[in-house]
Specification:
Blueprint (H helix, E strand, L loop, with lengths): L4 H14 L4 E5 L2 H12 L3 E7 L6 E6 L13 E3 L8 E2 L13 E6 L2 E4 H7 L3 E7 L1
Antiparallel strand pairs: 1-3, 2-3, 4-8, 5-8, 6-7, 6-8
């Protein structure tokens, strides 16, 4: 039984990258779909597809690798806010990941967005994860 779907989502991606898989399939939810869209927009994944075949549906993600030496684009993916200890930050306190080279995904009152977008819109929220 999984109590934290976001941690499960990140772990499945982390494990697929570690095993050099090209595609990973994850049970869908609205939050996971938003995170997937952000990963695609920021260039961390190659493509994605939402499959609505049963009640929950699935997300099929094609992982992105460097063409020269076949290194994964996602070097590290880390959960920050956990169910036992939530991490919130205002717009001015949002972390900068590797001096702007990585992203933090933030759940705000305006939806799920990157730390850069949240600073631009001047909204804070729950810091879900870091990706670089």
């Amino acid at each position: 039984m999984n109590l934290d779907p976001v941690t499960d989502y990140l772990t499945r991606i982390r494990n697929a990258v570690a095993a050099s898989h090209r595609v990973v399939e994850i049970p869908a939810s609205n939050l996971k779909k938003e995170i997937t869209k952000i990963l695609f927009d920021q260039g961390y994944i190659l493509s994605y597809k939402f499959i609505d075949d049963d009640k929950q549906g699935k997300i099929k993600i094609a992982l992105k690798y460097d063409k020269l030496n076949n290194d994964p684009v996602i070097k590290k993916i880390q959960r920050i806010s956990k169910p036992g200890l939530r991490k919130y930050a205002s717009a001015s306190e949002l972390p900068r990941i590797l001096n702007g080279l990585g992203i933090a995904i933030v759940s705000t009152s305006h939806g799920v967005m990157t730390d850069k977008q949240a600073r631009k819109e001047n909204v804070g929220g729950e810091v879900l994860c870091y990706i670089y």
